[in-house]
Specification:
Elements lengths: L1 E4 L8 H11 L6 E4 L12 H13 L3 E5 L7 H11 L5 E4 L2 H9 L4 E3 L8 H10 L1 E5 L6 H13 L6 E14 L4 H5 L18 E4 L5 E6 L2 E9 L4 H6 L4 E4 L6 H12 L27
Parallel strand pairs: 1-2, 1-11, 2-3, 3-4, 4-5, 5-6, 6-7, 7-11
Antiparallel strand pairs: 7-10, 8-9, 9-10
Amino acid sequence: MRLSLGSLQYFWPRQQVLEFYAQALDWPVDIVYLGETVCSKRRELRTRDWIELAGQIADGGKQVVLSTLALLEAESELGALQRLVENGRFLVEANDMSAVQLCRERGLPFVCGPSVNVYNARDLQLLREDGLCRLVLGVEQGRRLLDELRQCTAAGGQRMPELEVIAWGRLPLAYSARCFTARAHDVPKDQCGFRCIEHAQGMPLDTREGQPLLRINGIQILSHAVTDMAPELPSLQAAGVDILRLYPQPDGMQAVVARFHAALSAAEPPPRVGARNGYWFDEAGMEPVVA
C-alpha cells in the first residue's frame, strides 16, 4: 500500500504553495497530485507553473499526477485542460468527463478522480476502455460498493484498476456553479476579489444551534471535520485498496504523513485522531462511535 498527497483543495498564496511542495519532497509519499481542481480563478499558479513544479517533484523521485478541474464553465477552462492533458510527460487525474474525453481521444491513460461518478461495474468497464488506470473512489463509495464492484468485475472476467481512497482530509462533498464564498462575503462571483485566499482551510459553516457542520471553499463544499481512516487500515487492505490519499493542510502535514507511513508497517492500526468516515461503513458519518 502506497501514500499519495492529494491535490491542494484550498487557495493559498504562491509562495506558501511552493514552500509546501518543497518540504513535501522529503516526505515518504509515493505520489503527488498537482493542480487546481476547484476554481479556475485561483491563478497564483497557472498551468505552466504547475507543470514546471511537477517536473521538479518528479526529478525528486516521486510520481506526479496533474489534476483537472471538477467543474468546467468556460471555453478558456477547456483550453487550460487541453494543455494539461497534452503536457507530454505526466499522468492526468480526470475530475470530469471532458477530461476523460480528451484523454480517450489522445489514447492517454488517466486516473479517474473522486468527482467522477462510478457506481457500477459497467461504468468502470467503459472507463477502462477509455484508458482508466487508477480509480479514486468517490466520497460516498464505501466498503460495500467496492466489494460489489470487485465481484461484478471479476464475474465479467476483468481486473480491477489500481484503487485509491481518501484517507485523510476534509471530504469534498459538492460543487456548484455558484460561489459560496462570494455569497458569504456578499459580493458577485465575478467580483469576488479572490476572497478564498483569506481562508486557508475554507470558511466554517455552523448549524443554527452553533455546531460545526461544513466548510465553504469557493464553489466547493467540504466536510468540517478532517476524516482519519488510519484506524481502518486492516479493512482497507482487505478490500484491496492500493493507495491512501492524504489531502494537504497548512499546518502539521509532515506529521500526518509520518503517522500514516508508520502505520503501514505497524502491527496494529493507530488510534483515531480525526473524524470517522461513516461512508466507508454505510453509516452516517456524524454518528458517535460506541466504544
